[in-house]
Amino acid sequence: MPNYDKHPCITVPDADNACVAGWAAIGRRLRDAVAARGLRATVVAVECYPGVNEAAVTDALAAELAASLIIRAADALRPEAEINDLCAPFLGGDDPVFGFLCGLELPEFFDAAKLAHLRTIPIQTHTSAARCLNKEGGHSCPPFHDPRGTGMSLLLIPSHEAASDLLESDTDSQAVDGVVLIVGVGATLVCEPDILVYADLARWEIQQRQRRREISNLGVDNAELPPGLKYKRAFFIDWRVADRWKQPLLRRADFFLDTHHAATPKLADGAAVRRGFTTAVSRPFRVVPFFDPGVWGGQWMKEVCDLDRTAPNYAWCFDCVPEENSILLNIGGHHFELPAIDLVFDQPQELLGEHVHARFGAEFPIRFDFLDTMGGGNLSFQVHPLTAYIRENFGMPYTQDESYYMLDAGPDATVYLGLKEGVDPDAMLRDLEIAQAGGAPFPDATYVNRWPAKKHDHFLIPAGTVHCSGSDAMVLEISATPYIFTFKMWDWGRLGLDGKPRPIHLQHGAANIQWERTTPWTHDHLVNRIEGLGGGDGWREERTGLHESEFIETRRHWFTKTVPHDTCGTVHVLNLVEGEQAIIESPGGAFEPFVVHYAETFIVPAAVGPYTIRPHGPACGSECATLLAYVRA
Prior knowledge:
The protein has about 625 residues and is of the alpha+beta class. It has three domains: about 20-275, Rossmann fold, CATH 3.40.50; about 285-525, Jelly Rolls, CATH 2.60.120; about 530-630, Jelly Rolls, CATH 2.60.120.10. The protein contains 17 helices and 33 strands. The radius of gyration is 26 Å and the shape is globular. Mean pLDDT is about 90; it is low at about 1-5 and about 135-175.
């Protein structure tokens, strides 16, 4: 049984006093940091990722620090209409799902008309003389921090009323002393602070807040917008902008602030967090999985993953999607939560390896997730875009090739994959249009192959191949990371969980279907292409895919004894697809032994090099199996 109730955690060395919990303790830690600076006025900037509750952070810290001046970065954003105009080219018009990945930079969201005076606000130095908030020379902060080299130099007007009085005065006697608190997305646009706090948030938690209508998108007030539209805007705009701004800040933040759970905020020393990142890439680790219901969701994960039995179903589990998942660092006994993508940003070469990093940059290109239709329904009939199409239409440099590995299957499980011989494209598209318009249901048996599926089968799905999992299946989906680029062409006439029709993209789908991928080709190239590769004492290795056009290689190892592995300088992603437990060990003792349970996904960073896997605990003496994915050289 997987320990999904016990979230995987990475223990940070030498971190006994490096994390505190609760606003009172956070205030004490920051007051100590302020006192250590020895300044008459100390600028504390809390840079926030979009979705952080900036008002709650501002109110709590202003009280704990007895701030003399409060500046809210959001007050200097451009008017909402201008921001909407700025974002419109990347939102795909009325399309409810797809836009175009933007190249915008955070300074573009701020209003140049509001910038004249802020840096002239005088604050006290060690002596009676005053310095401006961000003026070059003397005891001043460094000039405007422009980590992406945009050439823009923006200043923000403070919302605190006292600031306007200071701006009208030329006397040092009016200068601010004490704590100047700057909070929000873009806080470091104001000035280079004396103390930098980064308040981060995982995208999965952002989605929950979007669904609860608690938050808006960057620079606009749209909390009541349907969650899907807020997610679309965040995916194509907010997260791209915020990630570009965040990356250099991760390497120099004095503190990190975790507000995933509002009742228990936590503050960790920046050096400890970065030690946690360094520790993570020296050993196997897991990200924190999350589970979500769906219209086709099943019941398998409820039992096997020990989830809420009262939930109607669970359709998805994102078990290795660093862009969405979080990681937990054990910092001095506190579980500190951060987006897993921060690890990719901070340690890309050590995590990914040289050739993967050179090809994909600071992105994690492999995705593992679960699709549960056991006791549920068919997935939507769909196709993924070809590489040229996704690049030209959505700005994504690589596409969503994938595969279905059958973690489990009922007696009637099937996978829809590839077209039948002699299909008339015009007739098939016409029947799809009729079905979508409310006419006769799509006659899938006329056009699409249905392959019987059993446990441990592997179906390969290169982009352009029509497919979907049928009911009564438990799929471990292994794919490239651009995970929202699915063109649904038929959804079996059902409504979404919100009671509305799910979005259909028949035109996109028609432009990408590879019509020559019919029954013989599909059978020969995509169904159970399993090839024995030899083995050793108590283990054997097989190649299970993927297709030649895909960049991911998958290997399955069956074992009753120890299996030798080596990352060979590239990141490995594995799942224990058979057996109750296994243990991952370093032949040279470079990391502590790491135990995984059935159906758990784990990452072995490129920097690990040699490692071994063997049965463990109740699994000792029985045959286990792992499925391994890595990027082909």
